[in-house]
Amino acid sequence: MALDAFALILAMLGLGMLFARLRVLPADSAQVLNQVVLYVCLPAAVLTYVPRLHLDASLLGLMVTPWVLMLATWLLVSLATRLFGFARDVHAVLLICVALANSSFIGYPMVRALLGEQALPYAVVYDQFGTFLLLSTFGLVVLARYSGDRPPGVTQVVARVLKFPPLWALVFALLLMPAQSPAWIGNALQQLADAMLPLVMLAVGLSIQLRLPREELLPLGIGLGLKLVLMPALSLPLSWLLGLQGVMLQANVLESAMPTMITAAALAIAHGLAPRLAAAMVGYGIVASLLTLPAWMWVLGRV
Fold it and tell me: Which candidate among 45, 55, 155, 197 keeps its CA 20 to 30 Å from the CA of 124?
């Protein structure tokens, strides 16, 4: 593990929390930083690492895993709702917050910190062909169904996918970007990609919320247990079944172990679905993942 990168993650998270408490930055600073990451740093990371991929059938395992885990999430959350009598909005938040991992904003920096740069192309495949497509399909359907809106049509889903900046970077990287780009282009893209880690963790620190009413502690505990423990535990034998090995297998499990996608929680809040629980899944999940991710790395080193 790159201890310097992990130390930077903790430092920027703490700095963001301090800035939020002191109110030294504008109220929308976290949103602005996230937009910079979405439109600049994330596409730069895709353009940097995707051209290094050797496309073959083994990558299908990375694409399939998030979809299989989504089905497992649906079954397990439905069982928990039946056992504990969760309200509809709590059920909806658990569905999207467990199924949708933060496999890009936090996933890319953490995979790089824990596994090194050689694992990043696999993280990109997991995120772009798995998590992002899940958000644009499964996520939108859940939000529409449980918030009273109409389920999105095919046109709406396609339009949302086409508006996602990293997708265009992915298409360009696969079709036109050379594996070895000119030094001045490669160095610039690398520096922009490297900026993602401090910017994301600063934004998370600015927006993190850790307070929650007592009645929501049970669904929070179940959600975090499913997201940070059970999903990666399921992804390990699934990775073996799909024929993944070495760094590819490790990247697959670590991406499955990432905390809740910030965008998914934000959409749940915007739709009025258990907003405090959605925010807590992000806040507590990120803090807990600073322990669970190295723990999963320890497990992977022994299997």
Answer: 155
Q: Which amino acid is it at 104? A: S
Task: Name the packing angle between helices 231-241 and 60-84 (round to 10°).
Answer: 140
| Nearest residue to 89 (alpha-carbon basis) of 44, 161, 148 | 148
Q: Is the pLDDT of residue 17 over 70?
A: yes
- Do residues 201 and 271 make contact, with C-beta atoms less than 8 angstroms apart? no
User: What's the rounded Cα separation, in Å, for the pair 190 and 106?
Assistant: 17
Other CB atoms within 10 A of residue 202 CB:
22
DSSP assignment of 7-75, as one string?
HHHHHHHHHHHHHHHHT-S-TTHHHHHHHHIIIIIHHHHHHHHGGG----GGGHHHHHHHHHHHHHHHH
154-to-26, 157, 267 alpha-carbon distances in Å: 38, 5, 19
**What is the pLDDT of the chain when averaged over all its residues?**
85
Paired strand residues for 187: none
DSSP per position, 68-97: HHHHHHHHHHHHHHHHHT--HHHHHHHHHH
Whole-angstrom distance, CA of residue 155 vs CA of residue 50: 28
CB atoms inside a 10 Å sphere around CB 254: 26
pLDDT at 1 (0 to 100): 46
Averaged over 262-270, what is the pLDDT? 78
CB 273 within 8 A of CB 93: yes
* Tokens representing residue 240 in the block: 């073996």
Task: Report pLDDT for 3.
Answer: 61
pLDDT in tens, 108-164: 888 988 898 889 889 988 988 888 888 878 888 888 788 766 666 677 767 766 777
